[in-house]
Amino acid sequence: QVPLVESGGDLVQPGGSLRLSCAASGFTLDVYHVGWFRQAQGKEREGLACITGVLDGSVYYVDSVKGRFTISRDNAENTVYLQMTNLKPEDTGVYSCAADSWPCYSDNDIRPGDWGTWGQGTRVTVSS
């Protein structure tokens, strides 16, 4: 059983929007920090956004997506979302979510190596 499952990836034109979902199974996601990451072809995985547990609910972003992407939770659905707007070709990549107990604490400091539980990813292609 895969603990995290991403969905919502698609082909979209520049300037378009997508909402990605990260659904948990087998555990309750709301007490965990959850992060969204992107890996473009030939590049290292980078952290984009994260949200702390439900008791705090702080959100953090990397500068390249701030103002365009929004991370949020739906605790009833045991799901974390990444709403992406004004998409650019450089946003193309495989998007993955991850959960852990502590690694979300600062803008521009969302490190993939700090996160322990991962989904398999969903592909986003931004192209005309």
Can you put this structure into words, describing what you see?
The chain is mostly beta strands and 128 residues long. It has no helices and eleven strands. The strands form two sheets. Strands 2, 4, 5, 6, 9, 10 and 11 form a seven-stranded mixed beta sheet that branches. Strands 1-3-8-7 form a four-stranded antiparallel beta sheet, with no helix packed on it. A hairpin with a 6-residue loop joins strand 4 and strand 5 (46-51). The termini are far apart.
Topology order in helix (H) and strand (E) letters: EEEEEEEEEEE
SS elements, strand count: 11
**Gross geometry:** globular
Total number of helices: 0
How much strand? 35-45%
Helix content: under 10%
First-last Cα distance:
36 Å
**How would you characterize the largest beta sheet?**
7 strands, mixed
Nearest-angstrom radius of gyration? Answer: 13 Å
Structural class: mainly beta
Average residue pLDDT: 95
* Parts with pLDDT < 50 across at least 5 consecutive residues: none
Could you write a compact summary of the structure shown?
The protein is mostly beta strands and 128 residues long.
Q: Key features?
A:
128 residues, mainly beta, seven-stranded mixed β-sheet, four-stranded antiparallel β-sheet, 0% helix, globular
Per-chain topology:
Layout (H helix, E strand, L loop, with lengths): L3 E4 L3 E2 L5 E7 L8 E7 L6 E6 L7 E3 L7 E6 L4 E6 L8 E8 L16 E2 L3 E5 L2
Parallel strand pairs: 2-11
Antiparallel strand pairs: 1-3, 3-8, 4-5, 4-9, 5-6, 7-8, 9-10, 9-11
